[in-house]
């Protein structure tokens, strides 16, 4: 694809070529279903929509009641990852000072959300569609946003065209309404998709780790999660600060409830089952935490590690790639302690947490409670989030509670 980062004052993505028009493309939003189905070119969409009974039979045969949703989720995040990779490469090659200008990441954020929502709607047949996602279209509907809206439209349409799975072209109005598909409030009943279109936006801008994180809630429980991590080494992080050792890069983690967790390459290698590490002595453990100190209190995590006797320095990587790396045993512990007042969003943990639990790990808040994804767009939890294997969890919880108590006592003396 030939999109590039423009060097205009507003420095947004500019398509360097007009959209190709060799095939008749169906405009989006779609006309009513019967006419749309005559035009769609997606074989996946045809097979998933053709017969709900066929989907159910296929799911039961695979032993995974969410097999159809899993296939659709993987396809959706893989498509979005293509768009994100294009934009990140453009940022890296453009010389644009990413920190000074956030508009490329804005384009990628919206574009990723549109592609995931659209792809799910095309390929998942059952029930009403509900998506809880990070972005809405309010900013794009304001005066002055016309150019960025055009850039998003071009980028989304180019990605769909290059991918070849769907014979659809978005109008600008279609782009705005597709973004607003993500406005659902979630909750304890029914099914809700939960999406972070680019988790780890700061990592994305730095050229480091980020993830497209998608989960499915069913009756308030996370039943499925996929994490596309385009910059994560496929087999493991062997270097303590997250660099690869010449390994293939681009990992897709997935998990469905009761069926375990897997990793495969983003370009489609066979899935490999993954498990958390079996370390039972914290002295041999390493721990993951946020790269950004504004997102997690590094002094508190340092004190927890000291209490546990952890020898290795922290492994700091952006986004839910940390959950994926933990799930396949690259490290033993994940610690996340946001500063006071921060409210965790469900899309920052839903996909990652099921990948870890289905790999045999445990994810709780700082008091040892399970995370509750049924309360709407936010998690209502105690202080922080911790994850590790079953062997280390009791000593980790003890160290966490001691360290928090000491921090609170020190604060009360000030
Ligand atoms: N102040 C503050 N405190 C805690 N957390 C915050 C804060 N601000 C943002 N966020 C959320 O952190 C998400 C990024 O995930 P991580 O913190 O794991 O990665 S990172 O190292 O910071 O990149 C990040 O996700 P994205 O916004 O999708 O990038 C945010 O949801
Ligand atoms: Mg996020």
TrEMBL record:
Keyword Magnesium (UniProt): yes
Alphabetized GO MF terms: 3'(2'),5'-bisphosphate nucleotidase activity; metal ion binding
Entry keyword set: Hydrolase, Magnesium, Metal-binding
Keyword Membrane belongs to the record: no
Reactions performed catalytically: adenosine 2',5'-bisphosphate + H2O = AMP + phosphate; adenosine 3',5'-bisphosphate + H2O = AMP + phosphate; 3'-phosphoadenylyl sulfate + H2O = adenosine 5'-phosphosulfate + phosphate
PANTHER family: 3'(2'),5'-BISPHOSPHATE NUCLEOTIDASE, PHOSPHATASE
GO biological process: phosphatidylinositol phosphate biosynthetic process; sulfate assimilation
EC number: 3.1.3.7
Cofactor: Mg(2+)
NCBIfam families found in the cross-reference section: bisphos_HAL2
Protein name, as recorded: 3'(2'),5'-bisphosphate nucleotidase
Entry's family note: Belongs to the inositol monophosphatase superfamily.
PROSITE patterns linked to this entry: IMP_1, IMP_2
Binding site for Mg(2+): 134, 196, 198-199, 348
InterPro entries associated with the record: DPNP, Inositol_monoP_metal-BS, Inositol_monoP_superfamily, Inositol_monophosphatase-like, Inositol_monophosphatase_CS
Organism listed in the record: Zea mays
